[in-house]
Amino acid sequence: MDIYYESLFQVREATYDDIPAIMNITREAFVKYRELAGTEHLAALDESYNDVKNDINTKVVLLALSDGEPVGSVRVEVFPDKTAYLSRFAVKVTSQNNGIGKSIMNLVDRIMIKNGVREIRLHTGAKITSLIRFYYGRGFYIDSTDKSRGYVRALLIKEYDEKDC
């Protein structure tokens, strides 16, 4: 298992043992997201143990720890066409705004570049200013918006330069 260090936090690939922590982090963060987005239902809140286990088997799943305590996670699916989709990015509410998200995203970038990914996409609530600012600061831009899930979601894209890959 690869272990990576970013500033004061450890970010590493997730294992099956991490599934309960990933589920707790995701639930806490997405309950807040649901409130901020002004929606009733989010698929992230209905995940089962087996859903997370399947993601560990098929995607890049990272877990961030602070002093050994799980505080953040993310999942990235890499496609054969060298594009990727980032989902379930979550940091515990009490650990937000202290660099954990930035550390996770820095590692995602390194892994995407190492794998020759040309473009990574994600969806987020278009009205959640803090998230839009966060992603803009990481090099993403808004490509489009839609209301397919009952709230305004923005499709954000980050392109990696060919020289990076």
Can you walk me through this structure?
- The protein is an alpha+beta fold and 165 residues long.
- It has one domain: Aminopeptidase (3-Layer(aba) Sandwich).
- Helices cover 32% and strands 33% of the residues.
- It has four helices and eight strands; from the N terminus they run E-E-H-H-E-E-E-H-E-H-E-E.
- It has an eight-stranded mixed β-sheet, sandwiched between helices.
- The longest helix is centred in the first third of the chain and has 19 residues.
- The mean pLDDT is 92.
Provide the spatial order of strands within the biggest beta sheet. Answer: 1-2-3-4-5-6-8-7
| Low-pLDDT segments, ≥5 res | none
- C-alpha geometry: globular
Structural category is alpha+beta
What is the number of strand segments? 8
Percent range for helical residues?
25-40%
The biggest beta sheet reads: 8 strands, mixed
- CATH architecture descriptor text: 3-Layer(aba) Sandwich
And the CATH topology?
Aminopeptidase
Mean pLDDT comes to 92
CATH superfamily: Gcn5-related N-acetyltransferase (GNAT)
Number of domains: 1
Order of helices and strands: EEHHEEEHEHEE
Radius of gyration: 15 Å
- What's the CATH C level? Alpha Beta
Strand content: 25-35%
First-residue to last-residue Cα separation:
23 Å
What is the overall number of helices?
4
